[in-house]
Amino acid sequence: MTATTDARQGEYVTYAPKGEKCAKCKQGFGPLERVWRLTVERQSGAPAFGPYQHYEKCR
Q1: Which residues have CB under 8 Å from 42's CB, separation 6+?
Q2: 25 compared with 2, residue with greater pLDDT
Q3: Residue 45 burial (CB < 10 Å; 0-12/13-18/19+)?
Q4: According to the model, what pLDDT value does residue 6 have?
Q5: If you placed Cys at 55, which of 9, 16, 34, 44 could pair as Cys (CB 3.0 to 4.6 Å)?
């Protein structure tokens, strides 16, 4: 499965809090810029929320 076909990578589209950086390119987000809220797999229980990623630029 590739990143473009893996729906589990992006949990939902939202806006990142001020000061957060993209998990992929390490750049900050602009005001009101849409981002993916990513999930982190865990050994037990539901996936935990993880970092943010640019919605369009780093998809």
Answers
A1: 48
A2: 25
A3: exposed
A4: 52
A5: 34
Residues comprising the chain, all counted: 59
SS3 letters across the chain: CCCCCCCCCEEEEEECCCCCEECCCCCECCCCCEEEEEEECCCCCCCEEEEEEECCCCC
Closest CA to 39 of 31, 47, 27: 47
Burial class (CB in 10 A: 0-12, 13-18, 19+), 33: middle
Instruction: Tell me the Cα Rg of the chain.
Output: 12
pTM: 0.67
